[in-house]
Specification:
By secondary structure, the protein is an alpha+beta fold. Helix content is 34%, strand content 26%. Its cofactor is Mg(2+).
């Protein structure tokens, strides 16, 4: 069986290649091919091309591994599963906002052991291996610690379905007066890496899927953050929370009474 470092090396090579392809092929305004949960939840041709490239490269080296991709769903089965978001932040990609990423994680026996988030427009590649720390450009990352809720800069995101957005706005109205400020970047993977790098103090979001948080969540966890859901649950599409211990609990206790997992 390959080690976490082996998986990480392969994942990083593939994420870098996919990023280079996306930069080279991206037109001035990418064409929307389809929508998913709502008319504003879009898919471009390059989402699909990126995932096809990533899947092909994985299969060249590890043909028996399973792959979960945002666009292509699950293929294969086995102890090793790759979790792929070919473009996290597709709306940013569509509009030319430089906050989108290629995210690749590797899961062995149900545990994420390696993760890469290539924030392509910024040329930043975040990496983490289970037990080996989180890294950016040769520098080991540590999340901010000892920050009280009232002084915390919190990242979040919003869904695409109107009923969900209505509840998210309601929750945000309660959170905003109790924190330093809110940031909305448009990419969950990028937000989690920003937390690992100390660029924000905490993160919460209703709706992210496994491919959104698998790699970035490992980066944040290896930088010292706690990652989870409400009431002791693991991170999940109902709600995903991330912050240093202490702030995690404060943010959790602020959000839990607001019932943030519901939709209107």
């Amino acid at each position: 069986m390959s080690t976490a470092a082996d998986f990480l090396g392969l994942a990083e090579r593939i994420a870098r290649e996919a990023g280079e392809m996306l930069l080279a092929e991206r037109p001035v305004r990418p064409e929307v091919l389809a929508t998913k949960s709502s008319p504003t939840d879009v898919v471009t041709a390059l989402d699909r091309a990126s995932e096809e490239l990533i899947r092909a490269r994985i299969k060249e080296v590890r043909p028996d591994d399973a792959i979960l991709g945002e666009e292509g769903g699950v293929t294969g089965e086995g102890r090793v599963r790759w979790v792929v978001d070919p473009i996290d932040g597709t709306v940013n990609f569509l509009y030319g906002v430089p906050e989108w990423a290629v995210s690749i994680a590797v899961e062995v026996d149900g545990e994420i052991v390696a993760g890469v988030v290539n924030i392509v427009p910024r040329g930043e590649v975040f990496t983490a291996a289970r037990g080996g720390g989180a890294w950016l450009a040769g520098e080991r990352l540590r999340c901010n610690s000892g920050v009280p809720l009232a002084q915390a800069l919190i990242a979040t995101g919003f869904g695409y379905e109107p009923g969900r957005r209505a509840v998210q706005a309601e929750v945000l109205a309660h959170v905003l007066p109790r924190v330093r400020d809110i940031r909305r970047g448009g990419s969950a993977a990028s937000d989690l890496c920003a937390l690992a790098a100390g660029r924000v103090d905490g993160y919460y979001e209703r709706g992210p899927q496994e491919w959104d948080y698998a790699a970035g969540g490992l980066v944040a966890a290896e930088a010292g953050a706690r990652l989870g859901g409400l009431h002791g649950k693991p991170c999940n599409p109902g709600l995903t929370l991330c912050a240093a211990p202490g702030l995690f609990e404060e943010l959790h206790d602020l959000l839990a009474p607001l019932d943030p997992e519901r939709d209107a």
